Fold these 4 entries.
Entry 1:
Amino acid sequence: MGVTRDFTLKGVWFLNRVLDWVTWPIMQLCELVLGSLLFAAVAINVANVVGRYVLGSSLGWAEEVLTYSMIWGVFIGGILVTLKNDHLCVDLLAQYLPPLGRRLLDILILLGLIGCCVYVARQSEQVLALFSRTGQRSTVAGLPMVWIHGAIMVGFTMMAIAGGLRLLRVAVDSANIALCGQPLLRDHAQRGL
Amino acid sequence: MSWVLFGLPLLLLALGFPVFIALLAAAAVTLTFFMNVPGVAVHRALFGSMDTYALLAVPFYLFAGELMARGSMSRRLVDWAMSLMGGMRGGLGLVTLSGSTFFGAISGSSVATVAAIGRLVQAPLEAQGYDQRFGPALVAASAAVALLIPPSIALILYGIAAQQSITRLFAAGILPGLLMSVVLGVYIYIMARVKGLKAVRPFEGRAFVRASGQSSLALGMPIIILGGIYFGVFSPTEAAGVACVYALVVSCGIYRDVSLRAAWDTAVQSMYLTSQILIIVAAAGVFSWVMTTNGVPRMLAGGIANLDITTWQLLIVINLLLLVVGCFIDTPSAILLLTPLLLPIVQAVGVDPIHFGIIMTMNLSIGLFTPPFGLNLFVTQALMRPRPSDLYLGVMPFVAVSVLALLIVTFIPSISLALLPYLY
């Protein structure tokens, strides 16, 4: 019995490490894109102001490009937030549950998140198919609308996948709690302004 | 259908679902089962609510504020306030308050203000005899002023949700923010006399001039940013971009107390926080569209009109609701959830939408330090380690005097609207 328990425990730890290896590069890539987007946005924004007052001409495409890059930034950040299970929520109920109950609630919430993300991604796919057929472009910068609106489909698809990875992690954690009473994951910490 | 639109989000929120999922799920269920509209409308509404240039100000102000909190700008502001007010009885309390007010004027974030100012005044407060009940409560309450003093991320979000000018909201926040500071300052002064707290050091003109010189770059920031907005030099979003460059140049280039690596980490963290907030903006856009399409705001406004309730009675009820909501739900979520519901109701009884934005933000700012779930209380607790019971008891008088300021602002709209005619 003890040997089986040790073997299962080792399996739980191994799965947890595998999930670390899978999620780490995704998180690094998201962070690289987010930091680069912010610095690029600041540079374009200020270049626009300087251009208007110093050179007498502003960058006509700046507002469109900045707005669309922010939309991409929000959904790429959403992937990172989902991987860290850190979306803003009112986590009062979880505080009164035992560790295993908390993990079961996490599983329910993640299933809801995955379902919602898949629903939005499927609706978004239809809109992208339409833009792809018509070849519509943005008014000023002339960017293909399929790229711009693609942020929603890519974001929600990746959030569903991130939710799936998180779900596996919570399942592994639940197994660990059942085996040795100790959680591997830190509990969700609410953040805000 | 109404049970889905109101009941489902409340149930999901209570269970601990992310706010954006609670809103999206309610909208998706309503669309699928009760409306004859294709689901692609969800995509349109999601994109439409994010396709706003003004929202770019959110990551910019978060970045500028975090950068200044990491460097020495906040310390210089506290030193300057100390040289000005350290000679008064309870001077350190007033320094904490004015430091928070000034830091709020450059960061736009209340939590960043608690972290930046609390870290600096913690040891001096203890050394000066501010007990565990008064000192931490003072830090938590003072920082809430940052939500009203422009630039304020809360006011930007209200402007987006209510489709109001952010420049006008910023101007409207100045006098109520200062009024709240004055009311809190009077309370701090009275408590300092009651508790027999001494002045830190006598006022010296030379020390004041020296501190002003050392903090001139930090003090110059609100002048450049707000002056630029109010005199029409740049839009609030452009001003936020200028604030980022200013904070980068001053912290990394002139003071050299923030490394480029730290600036990068701050940029990533700011975008991360932005994602947490703006994904709710996107989902709230879908929820709001579903409600509007089904005529819910019109029904609510009509229902209130039929109740034969006076404007002041309605405002009291809404203030109570917002105070309670502010204790449980974070500020961005509360603004984005409640603005589409409450704005048509108050507009139906003739309340100015700009004035209502200030009332809402002021309520939620009080919620930030109201027990048991005010976010500033958690940050103060993590930073200063008071016993929760001491902090909760200590903060209650601050809540009471802030509610007094709230009532003044609620029933004298000209305090919020007085500066609007002077905008460029």
Note: Chain A touches chain B through 54 residues (CB under 8 Å).
Entry 2:
Amino acid sequence: MINEIKTIVNNYLNNAKLCNLTLGTVVSDGVKVSDRLTIPSELIKGVLGQYTTVNDKVRLIRNHGGQEFYIVEIIDRDFVIKGSTVKLSLDGVIKDYKVEDVIK
Amino acid sequence: MSIQFLVKVDDEIWEISECVTNISYTDKLNDGCSKLEFSYINADLDIKNGSVVSFKYDGENVFYGYVFKHGKGKDKEESFVAYDQLRYCKAKDTIVVKDDTISSLVLKMCNYFKLKTGVLTNTSYKLPVNVQDSKTWLDIIYSAISDTLMSTGKKYALRDEFGEIAVRDLESLKLDLVLGDSNLVHDFDYEKSIDDDFYNQIKLASDNEISGKRDTYIARGIESIDNFGLLQYFDVLDKNYNPSQAKSMTDTLLKLYNREQESLSLDCLGNAKVRAGTSFYGLISDIKLNKRLIVKEVTHEFLPNHTMSVEVSI
């Protein structure tokens, strides 16, 4: 009896597609998660999607239900944000700049 | 009545119509494969798992499938359970549904499992793009059938027709058959309830990207609330719908749930044409029933006399 209940709960949880975190690689028509599964770009949400290029590794959150995927970060890619410092070179002279604001 | 019962064991076909002592056939609408249970008095033929079974009754093709279970007691009688090809579609897989229809998904499935196909009704409705991750093929197709129903109002059945997988529009499965208290039915069981799956107010919550918060949408059936009291359905949508989509979903759900649930099962003389998904005309004066009914589930008992019990949706 206990085993049957465990099986039922397991099957249910697997079928319910709870929220989870997955890793994927950006390809031309979506994000490849495994050899069998490439999530089509229609289902990829979040602003970060615009800043990815093919072969970027991304971390995704799958929503409860499994029909939407949000890019939470692009792995190993730093972003220019307010308050960070960037090094810029002009005619061989390198200077540090502090970012006051980011305009899209 | 005539029975033709064939089995194929190790590439040899045997007729065992005379040795079969019990035959029962169960079929459910869009809920797994159909099942044939039979017992047989062993006369030097060992039917094994995987053996092919073919059963015709009065010339009507009833069942073609494969033995999945067998067992026996002390006497010579052995019992068997056979399933049709859809049994193989209980396997799980991961697929992306894109530019697909019900029929194209079924074709993919049959190609993958190398199953024989028959009439695959072309369902022109294109399914929304979605990911089906480690789900059974049957569940994938059933959810495609329910998506199609929601959007087009047309209901399809996935079934195995004597060894051929088919997709049929229920409209095309109407039988010229009347079942009623004066006609073939010897018992029935009828219930009308607002206890389960009955709601007259639908409340849906959906995240709204423009307002940046969760909005709720309500549809109510005023007259029904007066009659039965307020019975509310509430759900949080798991996808971002725009306000007009969410509103129309509440209306659809209200239509679906705001009616008294009626259930009816009939015990009657058998008719081998009756399978899940077919419909017949029901005529029972006691409960003022006078309309076409769709078979949800049917169990036929063929021996000694052919009877069936039918569960219908009203």
Note: Chain B has a mean pLDDT of 92.
Entry 3:
Amino acid sequence: MRALARKLAFYILAAVVAITIDFFIPRMMPGNALTAALGKLQNAQVTPALIKSLEVEYGLTGHQSAWDQYVQYWDHLLHGNMGVSTEFSQSVTSVIGGGIFWTLGMVGLATAISFVFGTVLGALVAWRRGSWLDNLLPAMTFFQAAPYFFIAILLIAGFATELHWFPALNGYDQTLVTPGLSGTYLANVIDHAILPALTIVLASAAGWIVGMRNVMISTMDEDYVLVAQAKGLPKRRVILYAARNAILPSVTGFSLAIGFVVSGALLTEIVFSYPGIGYILQQAVLNHDYPLIQGVFLIITFAVLGANLIADFVYVLLDPRTRQGG
Amino acid sequence: MAMTTPASDPTAVPVPDPVPVPARVRRIRFPRSPKIIIGLLLLGVFVVMAIFGSLIAPYDPSAHLNTTVGIPQPPSAKDWLGTTQTQEDIWSQLLVGARSTIVVSFVAGAIATVLSVVIGVSAGYFGGLVDDVLSTLINVALVLPALPLLIVLAGFLSSSASANDLLIAMIISVTGWAFGARVLRVQTLAMRSRDFVDSARIIGERTWRILAFEILPGLIPIVASSFLFTVIYAIGTYTSLAFLGLISTTHWSWGAMLFWAQESSAAQSREWWWFLPPGLAVALLGTSLALLNFGIDEFINPRLRVAGLSRKIARRTGVPRRFSLGVTPVAASDRAGAGRTHASAPLPTGTGAAQ
């Protein structure tokens, strides 16, 4: 338990660092550039009052010390106030809220599938070492090295443009269905999610397969695996024994890789114009929408920290040794 | 591509070598794995492209070759890889774009590796408060997602600043050092209490000497592996940033080519000659480095090596393809390697980097 408390303290520290970085993001750029960027917004549908409030928020009026701004920033954040998006003219939280379910549904599911599929396949490749399964490795190296967005482009060119099996863009077809709890809408959503999800699975599974295989090969040489086999346990049980131990580094690896997967998923969303967080971030950066940029960065960071925390809990569940010390 | 590395007979009782194999001999045998050879060949092609690409490019990559045609032209005898929407020669863009991509990724990899060695080895060797502070730094850097941060940072750069390859490399390296540092810290911790380090300390060697001559040589395979991994990461990150249009889009790199292809929906218009060459180049460059990394992994952990043997070679060298548990044959005559600390799977060998 003490180990978990330490972990928790660490994630809180990481969150504070992330929030502090987030505070400095718009302030790192030269003040004039920010003024210019805000000034450009005057011809958009942004009211002068909003610009005034942004200038106050970013300390351009010079009334507040940096520390006061920082305290105020925290105060707003703790009240769930992330400011107003200059591009969409609505609060940042509602813009993000509109995209987050798309991302959580598609990216979350794809990541889980990829982890389970990759880990099982990795264990099998290690177990059947020397069989044809080894030939998978070079092919996977390619998928590992190819950028997510390139795989996305290939899938669009192949399955959408050539074969017309799946739609290429957007989260659902706005001309055909209206959002709601209808079967046709859900079918349309799933139809649109398949290619982006396949991209994420193809691009990230290779890492799990290779990682699991390497650890599994070492684990299979442990004495207890030999003993398990010597006393005549069925092969499936022996594999499970070895796999349960070999999966531990994969769970640790999960926390390392989740940042990559999220980054890749952002790009995948952008290629597919999928209406999730990645697409929102791209819009925000292209339009110099600083409050939205800050909000999206924070949400992504918190999501990654949360995934890490879950991975740590799972690790404690899987490995009894971590429970003995506390 | 035969694997000529002789394999020791695994059924024979392993006789410890009375004389340790000199490091020199091992280094000569090292490149004989087909993975390493293919990796080096591929990498060589790309390095040649990076150095001479702009000299052998038939056209200026930004020149509009034909002002009367408005759609991308498929490959022809004149334009080997066809043209873009605005009739620029794709083959020339590919050649010229190699330099920026490779310079950014290798410089970023080098800077990040130096950072990770300094931070990781200090954390592992000095321990105590230094370790606590540095470990926390490493872990925070690891959990913060890099690409969103880079997207935000690159969004602030002016287009002339973003065309500066060295500046971009430095920014990318700031987010890429933590993996290597973590692995190196663990390995240094393991080495710190080894007898030869203790004895060096007891006879009063200075700290920098112990670090440079006792610790570092033992870390070289891991440093190399972490360098390659970081370069793969940097390739993916740089290409992603350019693909998003955050790097000056007239500064030719493979990512910039993909940006323009995506801008005019090449994938939806069956213009495969436009998006395929730069994407394949990125993937193959990454593959070449990953193959080298596999080679290093097998060098560090000889158990992984057997898996790479083809059936024919396995029969010839007498390594059983199906072997019982507990006795993994070690495929090369590298007993010195087998006696080392096994750093199995020291790095998540590029989980797709940041694409």
Note: Chain B touches chain A through 73 residues (CB under 8 Å).
Entry 4:
Amino acid sequence: MVRVMLGGSLKNSAGGLSEFDVEAGTIRELLTRLGDQQPQLKPILDKGVAVAIDGQIYRNAWLEPVPPDSEVFILPRLAGG
Amino acid sequence: MTSCRVSTTINGDAVEFLCAPEETLLDVLRDRLGLTGSKEGCGSGDCGACSVTLDGRLVCACLVLGAEAEGRRIETIEGMADGKGLHPLQSKFLEHAALQCGICTPGILVAAKALLERNPAPSETEVRYWLAGNLCRCTGYDKIVRAVLDAAAEMAAGTREG
Amino acid sequence: MAPVSKRPDPERRFKQVGTRPLRPDGVDKVTGRAKFGADFVLPGMLIAKVLRSPHPHARIRAIDTSTAEVLQGVKAVVTRDDFPDPMSDETMTGEGDESLRDIVRNVMAREKALYEGHAVAAVAATSAAVARRALAAIEVDYEVLPHVTDVDEAMRPEAPVLHDDMFTAGVEPKPERPSNIAKRYDITLGDVAEGFAKAEVVVEREFKTEAVHQGYIEPQACLASYGEDGQAELWCCTQGHYFVRNACAKILGMDISRLRVTASEIGGGFGGKTTVFIEPVALALSRKAGRAVKLVMGRDEVFRATGPTSSTSMRVKLGATADGRITAGQAELKYQGGAFAGSPVQWGAMSAFACYDLEHVEVVGYDVVANRPKAAAYRAPGSPMAAYAVESVVDELAAKLGMDPIELRLKNATREGTQAAYGPKFGPNGLVATLKAAREHAHYGAPLGPGQGRGVASGFWFNFGGETCVSLNANQDGTVVLSMGTPDIGGSRAAQCLIAAEELGIPYDKVRAIVADSSSLGYNDMTGGSRVAFAVGLATIQAARGLVETLCARAAGIWGIPPEAVVWEDGHAKPAGANAGAFDPLSLEDIAKVAANTGGPIAGHAEINAEGAGVSFGTHLVDVEVDKETGRVSVLRYTVIQDAGKAIHPSYVEGQYQGGAVQGIGWALNEEYVYGDDGRLQNPGFLDYRVPVASDVPMIDTVIVEVPNPGHPYGVRGVGETPIVPPLAAVANAVAKATGVRMTTLPMSPPRVWQALQAAAGVGPGSGPEG
């Protein structure tokens, strides 16, 4: 079970809720299950988000393991210029 | 449309070309003669990327007509290394990392060479004001100025690299 | 082979990384040999020109190209009819996620012309003169509409609306009427009301900044060649030729494999060349004409119709206790991103308070559209403006508290473990190190003369990694060639050669690097986001270690011992110990020379999606002198102190610091897009769009701080973007110290500064020194 928080400007994308408990072993599982739990979030997650695990930001890594008890934030994806 | 027929000297070589009356020297160099070292950054004489010398005088090739080259002596970036090696300015630019993207580099080198021919021992301020007509967006000018001052010192000392 | 272990080894001593050899591509650039976007030619090529809307906002009722099409020498004409409307929500991932529908509409106007300069048609002809005549012969029936160019004006309910399907996202309930506000963002941490209640000192200010352009000296240019078999080649100057390939393939309905894009040398990008403007047009013309087409933008077109950054309207409020602990930070950021949604306000909002350890933060951001060209990324997109506002208020707060500005920042600085306002905790970072280095620097204690002032500001950028492929091939003579897929805009070939040489233990001169075309390697994200030294470095390290593994296996084969019994040291394969056998070491050349006999050519390669990019913080110091009679601000001294994690080639790291700082100085003092009441850009040229020239700036001193990034084996952090973030505020803070007047509008051009000084002296406009 992992505690997932919506970060950045995504914080208010689920109608006021911004913290969820999700059962997941990898980032992909986490995003899929979060989307199932919170249908409002699903289109945003499908479009592409970044995931921060204990401060380390991952932009695309579906297969990255999510250790239990890690602090997870869902963030908008960015690059730069 | 009548073409102008022009005979001129470019980097020491005799060159003949045809051009439209309104064609600039920059267009001629790049599109007719394949000398693409001089760059077009603005086409209006504001950026200096097309700097060449005309009878030893530093000019923007985009502000000179191709026809005006008749009987004159033109020097471009392609003529700066003399076949035996790089000009000290070119070497110093590499040593000092005085270029990043390199688009302004040909114009700045031509301009710097013209400066050192007139003033072999310029101050930092003199270098900056002479190069004020050559825009660089990458380097902030610091390493460029250092390279020019270093090249001046080396040339004054009489050693030539390469 | 297994992915490279990320953590840097603190015991490692580098032999080549950290030195300053000459860049491998340098001679071509100082002799004029290097080929940039406009330097390519093909036999029989046509010249293309683009017809652009003279109106800032107009419905396009009809376009009649019939006369143009039959002109002698005209071989193809394209309009919106040649670019199918993507009906999906698809986005293309370049510097950010761009809507494909918006890209297509920006490349060629559909229903409306949305800014002066918006492309409406294009022509390919046998000469530029014929192409221009053809443009003049195209008749466009415009229904001119009211326009709006100012961000605050565009947000008003009565403003002319650009898109009647734009209903502000991020607000509840969904608005009933369309507007120019594409989206509302908010970032919250804690409760700012509670935070401000604890504050004993509060500063609140409003700011406005004008739009600026990346100002790259090389206009966009490309050469397209589309064959009768549906295969095409494209040469263009770009920061990301793989992105260009994918976007053009999509837009033209081609398989990706049928389009081969070669990146020329690039004359500057800074984010402005991370998308497409003219490339799909050139390809479409070439397809129609059956001949190669060259399309080069003029300088005025670059200003009018590429991607400047946002003009903004901002409000920032900070509260602190009397002893200098900031208790709350609040900001409202309004950014207009040109004619389509996608200003960088989200990144501005996320980075605004990144330098501070705050319990209570609230940032609201508005992404607004206006009748201006579609914004593209510009070096740390969105961050410089937000930092200008926040760092100015921090400076005022310091003055009110009677605290030194660096001490106030140190007291509240982000450290390792600080929670960012956008959620995650920061890893190890160099902010405090840069602040301390600034405080200790000779610049900070140097005496100032009359009319002079010193400013400090800090800044931040996230940086990213991204998809990266490299290939490292060993030649029979022991030299190696590195193929990378990221255009070199600032010396990255030198850095990558250093990394490969370091890993392989061979001299730097034995390694060459090329930028391969889009068909030669797997996908590469663009050069940008401060990612190349970090991500390409990671891939190069992995490829080099793979190469070493193979070299050791070949040596093992030659010696008849197991591969595990071979080690690589100082550029040679050696038996791992006395037990393995008494064999003389084999150099890379020894092994490569007989590669054909031991299994074939030897290479290493890597295809990764680099994660673990490290953030980069910087602190800048600047001294200015303000001439009270003219309002002219002269920059006397400038110091950039920034965390690079590990500088691979220090000269090129310094170059990024200096270049970014000077762009920031230009943004602070002179650069701006000037719009007339007619909605037209008044200064689309370098004469009146005034970027810094050599005589405007002093030497830019630099200090490279190195707090290793735990996500990279050498500790590398991207550095390219952060340098442009602090200068706007640093210069404004210096002006405030020099004059006692706080400038809240950028640029601080002489007329604005002069008027502000007059107003402060209680003198009305028109009462100048001459009376």
Note: Chain B has five helices and five strands.
